Write the structure tokens for this entry.
Amino acid sequence: MVNIVLVEPEIPQNTGNIARTCAATRSRLHLVRPLGFDISERAVRRAGLDYWDMVDITVYQGLDEFLQRHGAEDLWLATTKAPKSYHEAAYRDGCWLVFGKETAGLPEFFRERYRDKCVRIPMRSDARSLNLSNSVAVLCYEALRQQGFPELTGTGSMANPSL
């Protein structure tokens, strides 16, 4: 199992895509406020997120509350400023993959506090970053691969589920 943590996400479509990845992989989604959008039942229904009820979601008032409740055990921070690649980390069952907001990433004090737990996705030097939902998928699937894809059958369609 993998825990996906979004710190102050700003774009609802990214969080929707990430929730879908969490639903498909049985990963838990943790949202750290402030959020740049509404996640009320009405807003989710209006957005047509029919998989939202398949996701175990926890919302925190801030990064301090998240850390008080869960600590820093098996925490991995995704950042373009990391010294090592994501494939060099050992992701255990129940690990925490932490991602920052789309416009600014994770807070500097947080990255510095857990410098040895920062990982990056390799890419060309003149590219700023991948889309947040793509980054989550890359790290989530690497963590699950290392764990042997527990409880995942691989029978779902990657495109149109009616095919």
Notes: Residues 2-146 form a domain with the Alpha/beta knot fold (CATH 3.40.1280.10). The mean pLDDT is 90.
